[in-house]
Amino acid sequence: MSELIKMFNWKAIAEIVILWMVIYRIFLFLKGTKAVYLLRGTIVLVISLVVFQLLGFPVLSRILTYLFAAFLLFVVIIFQPELREGLIRLGRRHIFHIEPQVEQVEQILREIISSVGVLSRKRIGALIAIKKEMGLKKYIESGVVLNADITSELIQNIFYPSAPLHDGGIIIEGTRVVAAACLFPLSDDSGIERTLGMRHRAAVGLSEASDALVIVISEETGIISLAIEGQLTRRLTPNELFTILKGQLAKIAD
């Protein structure tokens, strides 16, 4: 019995739990960046190395050890910008950031939909990108960083025609409006209606370059559209937009 207790030493169990919690948080921290694929590749290499050593394959273990060392050097060189950004975020302690709860997501969407409804009725053009998993760092850097709470009034004020930040798009990440007046890439898709302007091409372009959900409101007609994965869905009602966005954002937690 004493041997069994030693086998299941509480310290060892605690270490395993803490280790897996840290690994899980690191995975969430890197989720949405190219570095997450790096993490997956590293895990595959480590597991393969352990398996070969347990099976007694010295040649394969040696080759994989050299390959792993070369892989780490390759990672430092190729992913230097991502690693630098990760260290900056780690220094800000965002690695233990808690994802918004379902109630928070719905409240955020209500604020967004409320602003979209007002802007549509007033025929004020708008471009709103909602980050999912892929990082939007370079687009954030093209605009003005706000890092403000999401409210309907804030979004309306940003896109008011005489406001200094009304040109370009805003980027929403989690529970914050992280930046405004951001420049999005223009789509060169020939299938986009010729009557649609630069704002719609920017919405489609960003949805092609990332997994962001991009809302666009026509300044001429007030029509609400949504770009997802390069596809533009037009003439949406606020309720329809809410349903689509809620369904899309729910997939992240699955």
Jot down its keywords.
254 residues, alpha+beta, YojJ-like (1, 10 helices, elongated
What is the CATH domain class of the largest domain?
Alpha Beta
- Architecture per CATH nomenclature, i.e. the level-2 architecture of the largest domain: 3-Layer(aba) Sandwich
How does the helix and strand content classify structurally? alpha+beta
The overall pLDDT average reads 81
Spell out the CATH superfamily of the largest domain. DNA integrity scanning protein, DisA, N-terminal domain
Quote the distance from N terminus to C terminus: 41 Å
The low-confidence parts are: 92-98
Can you summarize the main beta sheet? Answer: 7 strands, mixed
Tell me the number of structural domains: 2
Contiguous helical run count:
10
Could you say what the CATH topology of the largest domain is called?
YojJ-like (1
Describe the model.
The longest helix has 21 residues, at 10-30. Helix content is 56%, strand content 15%. It has 10 helices and 7 strands. The protein is an alpha+beta fold and 254 residues long. The chain has 2 domains: 2-96, no CATH class; 102-253, YojJ-like (1.
Task: Summarize the SSE layout with pairings.
Blueprint: H1 2-7, H2 10-30, H3 35-55, H4 58-78, H5 80-91, H6 102-121, E1 126-130, H7 137-141, E2 144-149, H8 152-159, E3 169-173, E4 176-182, H9 198-209, E5 213-217, E6 224-228, E7 231-236, H10 238-253
Parallel strand pairs: 1-3
Antiparallel strand pairs: 1-5, 2-4, 3-4, 5-6, 6-7
Helix pairs in contact: 3-4, 6-8, 6-10
